[in-house]
Write the structure tokens for this entry.
Amino acid sequence: MTVIETTRARLKQRIVDVLADDLAAVREELARQFRSPSMFVQDVAEHVSRFQGKQIRPLLLLLSARVSGISQHERRRAAVLAAVVEMIHAATLVHDDVIDDSDLRRHVSTVHRRWNTETSVLFGDYLFSRAFHLAATTGDAEACRLIGRATNRTCEGELNQIGARLEQSVSERDYFRVVQGKTAQLFAVSCRLGARVGGASERLQSQLSLFGGRLGIAFQIADDVLDLTETAESTGKDSANDLANHRMTLPILRALRLGGAEERERIRGLLFSADASDQRVLRESGLLQRGLESAQQSCERFAERAVRCLRQFPDSEERRLLELVAGYSAHRSE
Amino acid sequence: MTVIETTRARLKQRIVDVLADDLAAVREELARQFRSPSMFVQDVAEHVSRFQGKQIRPLLLLLSARVSGISQHERRRAAVLAAVVEMIHAATLVHDDVIDDSDLRRHVSTVHRRWNTETSVLFGDYLFSRAFHLAATTGDAEACRLIGRATNRTCEGELNQIGARLEQSVSERDYFRVVQGKTAQLFAVSCRLGARVGGASERLQSQLSLFGGRLGIAFQIADDVLDLTETAESTGKDSANDLANHRMTLPILRALRLGGAEERERIRGLLFSADASDQRVLRESGLLQRGLESAQQSCERFAERAVRCLRQFPDSEERRLLELVAGYSAHRSE
């Protein structure tokens, strides 16, 4: 293991130690939500439950609740809401896979590959629906409204991404508008919900929401970098998905901006080529190197700006963990 | 116009007269929900708003509220919830079209035909999300829970339909389990929400919910019959969609049950043939005639059983209209 991997493993262990009971409650709730009396639904649910990854959104929610001083009797509600944000995330993964026509997700075949497109679309809807339903069982209409607002913006972000691609937009403004929706919103609302259930003031709820949003942007840029640098073996999903789908991610936009006229032409030519192997050529050409470095710098800056939002909270183990999560989100290897 | 068309037009006019203000409020709310600052989202939204049809779910909700004696100041909330159920329905249409790979919906090209699959999947999600968000703005967590429970079951019904098809199930029990989910739930919850906002007792809410559920089954069977009998010109959507997708609908199940061994073999052979023209042959062969008649009878029986649920409500114009809607749902021509 590298140094960074060792430290990451330690961080994970510390989080698990701190949140042990809460995480067990989230796992139980998710298991309950993934059970169905219908054999077919159960089959698909069991398959999808294998996609479970870092669960960063539930962790953010639970840690945000802790730094806000959540009382013992609100912990159950926090665990339910943590399960809700994870299910919404899972729903978007299932739909993303059908959209990108991906084969793999966390080393497991995607739903539309294992069954068909129909099953992917409907199972994603089912997860969305179960998530909203579960949120409503808390009896907190305002939490439902916040979740709905976040998913509205998430979907808008994803739709704007299509619009930007159809226009072959190379504007960073368009890129950040997309990311602000498709990734930042669910991170932000996870932190806000945690703060809310933890009893934080409106002002501190906004601070944690801002923390989550900035962290989400850092996380997405790191994802964009990984898509261009990592292999399917390490990420467990198809590599160069963005390239294959002609998505203008930050490393590419920066490579275009920083490159000379000739480099720009070559990048564009390979990027929009109908020959899929050209996108592999682009990935391996070194043409994107400066763009990757510049994007990585921006990613780290967003993570730092996120951490600054935590200053108003008293020093605590949980605040320290939130800071570490932000740091590691900018230095991901999967 | 035929007699039935004339009477249908009159019924529509009576409903419009009775619910004029409410329907205007629903239209306004839908227009508001279909507006977006994003140009691309707005484009798709405008296109999808042209799918709007009979709006039977909002009508059921509003009429259920009326027979329950809704007070003037609750009317606004009823209109919002009516917009919610219509948006959920619209979301399922957008996703159904991509699943069925349909070309037409209400004489307009489907979203994935006009744009692409990605846009269909995401715009459907967007509509779901906006619907849940709008429901939450009423501040009524229990309404959100009821809506979530209904959509859970709707999705389960649709997933069970895939399961049944993969097994080539010819069981009516499986068929009704699917329909009970995919169509009946949204009808039932529309009526229940109307009753709830109208101030009906728990018992009367359940009666109206039962009315809606039975009506939904009648509506779905009528839909199954239309799929086999009507042309794309009259319905405005692809005809024989169910056949093309090898879906075992009630007319087919009944044709199999009522036919002799030889007929059954021919029907099965044509139904599961990989040659798409064989499904057209089946449709035009007359082999399904007895099945269609038997299914139509069941449809009418469900509509009658639905109407019986209304007996506990005092006689009123609105109750009479609910009865008529049930009657016409069993005798649809589009």
Notes: Chain B touches chain A through 52 residues (CB under 8 Å). Chain B has one domain: 3-329. Chain B has a mean pLDDT of 91. Chain B has 17 helices and two strands.
